[in-house]
């Protein structure tokens, strides 16, 4: 059970890093006024959907589950 909690924290941290990286790259390319509004963000599941308010660009994050969890 402790390992499950650690995996959730890790996925949450990874989700935060991925979202920040996407936002950073987009605003560097198009300008500081291009901010992504994450209208769906589930760091436990590792999923997120967002849209840039300035240009309407859509962004999706789907982190894959570990193969150890899936039993493959």
Overview of the structural elements:
There is one protein chain. The chain is of the alpha+beta class. The chain has one domain. The chain contains two helices and three strands. A three-stranded antiparallel β-sheet has the order 1-2-3, with helices on one face. The protein starts with a helix and ends with a helix.
* Total number of helices: 2
Q: SSE order, as H and E?
A: HEEEH
Shape by Cα distribution: elongated
Question: What is the gyration radius calculated from CA atoms?
Answer: 14 Å
Q: Supply the number of structural domains.
A: 1
The strand line-up of the biggest sheet is: 1-2-3
| Mean pLDDT across every amino acid position | 85
Low-confidence stretches: none
Strand content: 25-35%
- What fraction, in percent, of the residue positions are helical? 40-55%
Measured between the Cα atoms of the first and last residue, the distance is: 20 Å
Structural class: alpha+beta
Largest sheet: 3 strands, antiparallel
Attribute tags:
elongated, three-stranded antiparallel beta sheet, 46% helix, single chain, 72 residues
Protein topology:
Blueprint: H1 2-30, E1 36-42, E2 47-52, E3 58-62, H2 67-70
Antiparallel strand pairs: 1-2, 2-3
């Amino acid at each position: 059970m402790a390992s499950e909690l650690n995996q959730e924290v890790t996925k949450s941290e990874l989700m935060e890093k991925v979202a920040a990286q996407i936002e950073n790259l987009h605003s560097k390319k198009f300008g500081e006024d291009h901010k992504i509004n994450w209208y769906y963000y589930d760091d436990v599941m590792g999923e997120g959907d967002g849209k840039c308010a300035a240009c309407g660009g859509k962004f999706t994050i789907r982190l894959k589950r570990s193969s150890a969890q899936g039993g493959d």
